[in-house]
Structure formats: structure tokens, C-alpha cells
Amino acid sequence: MITKNSIIGVLMGGVSGEAEISRATGKAIAEALSSLGYHVVPMEYDPHHVVEQLREKKVDVVFLALHGKYGEDGTIQSVLELAGIPYTGSGVSSSAITMDKIFSMRVMKQAGIPMADSMPVYLRDGVEATAEKLLAHFSFPLVIKPACEGSTIGIEIVRKAEDLVPALERAFHVEPRCLVEAFLDGEEFTVPVFEGKALPVIQICPHSGTYDFHSKYTKGATDYLCPAPISDELRDKMQAIAVKAFQVCECRGVVRFDMRTDSKGQPHVLEANSIPGMTATSLVPKSAAAAGTDFPHLCEKILLGASTGKI
């Protein structure tokens, strides 16, 4: 039972490429829970000594504010399961699947969830051979995504054949496994799901036309419309897709599903975010606010769902 007397360790930072973003998330969560009277201990994630850190601070429950590798991929979840320390969010297998774009694509497509035409590619097969295979399968533009990075790190949008090999080289420098997708030329959306229930849809409108790292993390570079100004039919369809993806991947807590429409206006899932950004101005809090839940109470609801023994 989690109470105001429980010691809440908010775990943030770490060694991934998204560590600084994680620290912003963790700081905001810690402040929000403290404002409600919880005993909060903000903690910098040291993967090699994390259990020692938690034991030293006598932490009763961990609020995971980590992004990227070793935080969203099932690694820390497995450590906390072994240590018997309750934690927020999805379990080991679910976190590993949703973090990996290749595996999550296979799982969701098999379940009939709409996604773009895609192909996994590997550095071990050679850049030139991979480029030839892609040229035979895709038309341009196409998108190259490192399999296990978030925050749009390493993503390449390739618009002509002569740019394909350099783009593959850059993407493989980030990670030796990538997912290549057909480019969807519609609008960008995201749908948070909290414990199996969809929250309001957000439309993402980057001023540059591309929702890249700059558009995502530069103040004023992107407009977020919530609830999205779309038809009830499209809203219901996207929310149903997000809920089904949440169920198929056996997620827990709050998970954000990014989507994009095609030229016919049909939505497709781009990826899942099992520990989405959680500052007061992040997307999930915007959606929750539109549904009537303010940021501190959203954090509290997530906290009260912490447990062990998850998939």
C-alpha cells in the first residue's frame, strides 16, 4: 500500500542519449508529488549501483522517469523485479517490446494494428546491399529509424536515391539495427492510454513541417492542438487503435502511441512510448488536462499503480 509516508524514489537521468530529457521529466514529477505531500527522493540513475542506491535511501517504491536505453527497454524493470521493489509503468517484456521498433512492429502488425509498410535492416548485411534491397522495395520518400532510440534520435527522412547510402551510414552509426518505413504524408498525432483507457487525441503541428528533435524540444517550434480538431470518426478510430496496441503489448500505467495519417486520412501507429515525457508541458499531461486531470494528480494516479510481478 502506497501512502504519503512511503518513500518514493524518482529515478531519472542515467547514461542514455535521452538522459537530460529524463532529468527534466524526473524533476517535474518529484515537484508534483511533493506538492501533494508525498515523501519524494529524486535520484540520479546509476545502472551499476541502482539497487544499492535505493536500499541506501530506504526507497519503498520507484517512479520511473527514465527515457531511452536501460530505462524504457526492460533493463531497470528486471532489476526492480528481482529486488522486489514496486515500480511504475510497464513490466519487463512489455517494456522491451515497445522500446524496440522492430519487435513492436512485428507484434502490432500481427495483431492487425495499422502501421506503415516497413522492413528491418541490419548493418551486418552491408550498407550497399541494404540500399539495393530498399530501392527494390520502396519508393521515396522513406524513413530510417534506429530500432531502440527515442526522441527522434538518428531518424533519417530520405527523399531521393542518391541520399540513401549516406543516410543509412548515419543511422547505422547510431545503431546497427534499423527499421525502414514508407513515409506517410498526412498529419501527426499522439494518443496517450492510461491503464487501458484512451485520453484525448493531440495533433502535432511542427512549424518546420517535420517533427524532429529540434521541433520536439525547442520552445515555440511546434503547436499542439488538444483535443485535436478532427472528426469524431477519426478520433474514435485512433483511440481504438491505441487501446488495442496497449492491450496487445500488455502495457501498464501510461503509454503514448504516436500516429500519422496517410494520404487517404487513415491513421497508422508509428511507435509506442512506454515512459513518455512528463513535464507539466509534455504531451501526456496536456491530454490528461483536457480530460480534467491536472499534472500533480496525474503523477499520483501513475504512482498508485506501481507494483511488481508485471509481464
TrEMBL record:
Domain ATP-grasp: start-end pairs: 105-304
Main location: cytoplasm
Catalytic EC class: ligase
GO biological process, one term: regulation of cell shape
GO molecular function, one term: ATP binding
Co-factor requirement: Mg(2+); Mn(2+)
Free-text remark on how the cofactor is bound: Binds 2 magnesium or manganese ions per subunit.
Keywords linked to the UniProt accession: ATP-binding, Cell shape, Cell wall biogenesis/degradation, Cytoplasm, Ligase, Magnesium, Manganese, Metal-binding, Nucleotide-binding, Peptidoglycan synthesis
Coiled-coil ranges per UniProt: none
Positions with a binding annotation for Mg(2+) 1: 258, 271
Pathway: Cell wall biogenesis; peptidoglycan biosynthesis
Bilayer-spanning residue ranges: none
Family under the similarity heading: Belongs to the D-alanine--D-alanine ligase family.
Described purpose of this protein according to its UniProt entry: Cell wall formation.
NCBIfam families tied to this protein: D_ala_D_alaTIGR (TIGR01205), PRK01372.1 (NF002378)
Name this polypeptide is given: D-alanine--D-alanine ligase
Gene for this chain: ddl
